[in-house]
Amino acid sequence: MRFLFKTSYNQDIRLFKDRITMGWYLALGVVLLVLPLLLGEYYLSQASFVLIYAIVGLGLMLLSGFTGQISLGHAAFLAVGAYTEAALSARGVPFLVSLPMAMALSAAAGLVVGLPALRLKGIYLAIATLAFGFIVEVTLQQWESVTGGSMGLLLEPVTLLGVSLDSESGFYYLALALTGLTLLILKNLLRSPTGRAFVAIRDSEISARSMGIGLARYKTLAFVISAAITGLAGALYAHKLQFISPEQFGVFVSIELLMIIVIGGMGSLHGAFLGALFMTMLPEFIAILREYLPSSLAYQPGLQPTIFGAILILFVLLEPAGLYGRWVKVRTWFQLFPLYRKGLMKREKSYVKSDRLS
């Protein structure tokens, strides 16, 4: 049993734990590549939304799950990326140029939030980021000359190197490539000294400071990187919907984004994907549920937020480790069950032997 949990520092910083794990990831990659051949346009569109939400979850996971900084205004960074992409694409800026600029402007917004929030933590930091979300939402509504106000903005499909990705499969492959690149960058970042510093700050700021880690530097860096990744998702989100308005980036959206990492599993990159999948499927489940509810309840405007809140409370109370934490428990049980059976059989044999001797 001791060999099952025997690990080293080199194993801990590997990109893949072993060849079996690498094989599973390669198999998953093959499935994702052939997915457009297996799904219709509607389900492929939903898969694209899963990838976009997964990118947001990765950015928020870096900030909250690995650095311990709570954010209730991440929809603001999503909006900055979306509106920057919309404004630049309307002026004919190529996607390969507008996308980095959307990420850069979102990163600048993250710097604006990160610097004043250095002296805040816990609920006070959450309130500060929530206030930033309100400010961005009001700005989008009032700055009509740029954002279109409540009328919103229209976007054309992504054009990449002269090729229009107006089909569901084309956009899916673009989202898949950017999601894979984001995951690879974050995986390597978390294996680096910078990633170790993020985790140290999350676990104990006092201990991190005693080890010489600059809290101000790394907290600000976490906000900037997280905002840039969320801006990337915002640009994809705008092109996917081809229409954006301030109502799409309200406070409830920030709570939905937070639910992705809470339900998926805090402190796990896998949890960002599981949470994104869950949050994409949940509205479909609610739509099916409406058919079995009384009409007086099924079409109440607050039904969906109520279900979202109830699910969030249940996860916090009953499964704080999220979906990935539950999967780790199930996987560990299957790993230990053969050893448990062998140990049980040994004890039974010793009991039989002792009975014979007596």
Describe this structure in words.
It contains 16 helices and four strands. With 358 residues, the chain is mainly alpha-helical. A two-stranded antiparallel sheet has the order 1-4. A two-stranded antiparallel sheet has the order 2-3. A hairpin with a 2-residue loop joins strand 2 (159-160) and strand 3 (163-164). It is globular, with a radius of gyration of 23 Å.
Task: List its traits.
single chain; 358 residues; mainly alpha; two-stranded antiparallel sheet; two-stranded antiparallel ribbon; 16 helices; disordered N terminus; disordered C terminus
Short description:
The chain has 358 residues and is mostly helical. The protein is 76% helix and 2% strand. A hairpin with a 2-residue loop joins strand 2 (159-160) and strand 3.
List the helices and strands and how they pair.
Elements: H1 9-12, H2 19-38, H3 41-66, H4 74-90, H5 95-114, H6 123-142, H7 144-147, E1 153-154, E2 159-160, E3 163-164, H8 168-191, H9 193-203, H10 205-210, H11 215-241, E4 243-244, H12 251-264, H13 269-290, H14 295-298, H15 303-318, H16 322-357
Antiparallel strand pairs: 1-4, 2-3
Largest sheet: 2 strands, antiparallel
User: Helix coverage percent of residues?
Assistant: over 70%
Distance between the termini: 32 Å
**Average pLDDT value?**
83
Stretches where pLDDT falls below 50 for ≥5 residues? Answer: 1-7, 348-358
How big a fraction of the residues is strand?
under 5%
The computed structural class is mainly alpha
What is the number of E strands? 4
Radius of gyration, Cα only, in angstroms? 23 Å
| Number of separate helices | 16
Identify the overall geometry. globular
Q: Give the H and E element order.
A: HHHHHHHEEEHHHHEHHHHH
Strand order across the largest sheet: 1-4
